[in-house]
Fold:
Amino acid sequence: MGAAKESRDEITLCAGIQNVQFGASLIGASRTEFNNLLVDSVNEAITEILGPKVNEALWYHYQAYVGVTRDEIPYQLDTFFNSLKAVFGLGGETLGRVIVKKLYAKANIPLKLVPDRPLSEYVETLKQILAEDLMQ
Structure:
């Protein structure tokens, strides 16, 4: 994960995210709020790309065959993103990027995707940024 330098409301990340201004909706967000935003981003991306009926069917099969529920995704990020790639191939990578973009947009934080960086790292980086802000 990228190292962070802090000033009052701004964080610069060496991993390609620069001049970060926290979204007012996420300042002081708890772990539960962050997890809800992540799950919402996943649902929105799947519904937007595949449609609402496929979204529901996907979740049913995802829980039955992978053994992870929607609420467990924040704790099983690598499993989740890897299973998207396994099921959808390159389309799973695209779906994962859309999920990460939606999550960062909800946090009002600019995102620059870097090739070959695991998508779970972006989520963990955002979680860390918001947790550090909460502790201040």
Remarks:
- Confidence is low (pLDDT under 50) at residues 1-28.
- Strands lie at 4-7, 10-13, 20-21.
- The domain at 4-135 is CATH 1.10.1200.200 (Non-ribosomal Peptide Synthetase Peptidyl Carrier Protein; Chain A).
